[in-house]
Amino acid sequence: MRRNRFTIDELLEELRGQGICDINDVKYAILENSGQLSVLPWPGTQPPSADDLGVKAADSISLPVVLVNDGRLISRNLELCEKTMDWLKKQVRRQGLKDYRDIFLLTLDGGGNINCIPKENSK
């Protein structure tokens, strides 16, 4: 570590950044050529995964899809979300707006949640 000018403080900081608070939980720490620290913890020091517990984990992570970007409709994304223009018009009215061109950003996530940011001076 000294040859690479890597201090104990930097080591502890890197470990904390990887979620390891106790240096005793580390079996190996390897300083890669890129300067990145790879850490291999002792078995049993990590929390169990869903597989370890025999639980089927649902894939609940999905990125929001942009439907309107700076007043421009992205019709391909509307189709991908299996939504119609009538559906979009209803959502625009629910936001108190007259037209999708009054929207700065409108997104739809996998759970059906809508995030709408109107353009300034559009309400």
UniProtKB/TrEMBL annotation:
Domain YetF C-terminal, chain residue ranges per copy: 1-108
Keyword 4Fe-4S: no
UniProt record similarity statement: Belongs to the UPF0702 family.
Keyword Ligase: no
Keywords: Cell membrane, Membrane, Transmembrane, Transmembrane helix
PANTHER family linked to this entry: UPF0702 TRANSMEMBRANE PROTEIN YCAP (PTHR34582)
Pfam families per the UniProt record, alphabetical: DUF421
Descriptive protein name: YetF C-terminal domain-containing protein
InterPro entries for this protein: DUF421 (IPR007353), UPF0702_alpha/beta_dom_sf (IPR023090)
Subcellular location: Cell membrane
GO cellular component entries: plasma membrane
Membrane topology: Multi-pass membrane protein
